[in-house]
Amino acid sequence: MILILICILLLINIGCSKDGESTKTEEENKDEISKQNNNSKENESKSTFISPLSGVKVKEDLSDKRPVAIMFDNQKDARWQAGLGEAEIAYEFLVEGNITRYMGIYLKNSPDVIGPIRSARPYYLTALLEYDSLYVHCGGSPQAKEEIVSLGIDEVDCMSAPGYVFYRNNEVGKKSPHNLYSNMNDIRKYEEEKGFNIKANYEKFSFNDKKEELDGQIANEIQINYAKYNQTSYKYDEELEAYIRYKDGEAHIDESNNKNLTATNIIVQEAETSVLDDQGRLEISTIAKGKGKYFTRGKYINISWEKEDKYSKTKYFDEDQNEIKLNPGNTWIQVTPINPSIKIF
After folding, report:
1. Which of 17, 36, 69, 71 would disulfide-bridge 133, Cβ 3.0–4.6 Å?
2. Cα–Cα distances in Å, from 338 out to 65, 127, 270, 289?
3. What is the pTM of this model?
């Protein structure tokens, strides 16, 4: 009887432990992120190399390793995304229907689960070419598919890649086409099989040696309204020294671990946006000049930007026309129409 009682108590404790894991609060997520940041800082002190995408210290030289750009679905039926939190740089652009889509740029991290993965658009190509990236997507608009060929972009497309690279994840409660996933190991394996160039040649961002505060205005909370029912927002957390990300009023979490997505740097880049056809496809002029804002450590400054051609780096300048330096950490680039609806608190 005593042995039976002990077994029952053990089962109860295990069950309680599992329940606790599946109902993490935002505060618990913040604690985990804070612990990870502390561990990361300890590891960084032993490192000598710098990631060219995020400015953080890493154990190996990544200066000529090729980044991977991955398209993420962001329709409500696709949320939340897995692996997006591990992107060192992430873009959010409008697509047809007043919704947005993400593209994550990866170098130092290799997520085991990545998705849902969706189709290409032309303006994402002009962004990924800045990093000489391998491009992971599933199909695309007619113009995007033509430009992938004409520009010679090395792609991993679900329409042509072997079956082991992509899979339908039926365990996440999502229906096709919002359940297409992959992982970085298989993407890199396919890259090797195809004989793609594994070395990259691109202009890197400039980073501060440590996180510095801007000589700017207070920005503890940011609300970017892409459309009536399409809002991206951030709230600054002093303990994390980063912004916690929200989408349409909900905390943006990574599906693979339920942790909050955060951003060390946020760039709002205003670009001329127009509708191309009756399908609602867009033209977003990112080979141009424009204005925007740069946010970090709870403050922001007004900036300008320019990109000379498809392959050149988009450069961001402060009001004195000095190219800005980013703080070490990940960066979200929010590309918006000109004069967007933004609230800053």
Report:
1. 69
2. 35, 18, 5, 11
3. 0.87
What are the residues whose beta carbons fall under 8 Å from the beta carbon of 160, sequence distance 6 or more? none
Length, in residues, of the chain: 345
Q: Is 28 helix (H, G, I), strand (E, B) or coil?
A: helix
Calculate Rg over the CA atoms of the chain: 21
- Quote the CA–CA distance of 220 and 62 in Å, as a whole number: 33
Element at 180 (helix H, strand E): strand 180-181
Structure tokens at 194: 């195809």
Query: How would you write 79-141 as a 3-class SS string?
Result: CCCECHHHCCEEEEEECHHHCEEEEEEECCCCCCCEECECCECHHHHHHHHHHCCEEEECCEC
**What domains lie within the chain, and their CATH numbers?**
65-194 (3.50.90.10), 217-269+293-344 (no CATH)
Residue 54 CB coordination number (10 Å): 26
Contact of 145 with 120, CB cutoff 8 Å: yes
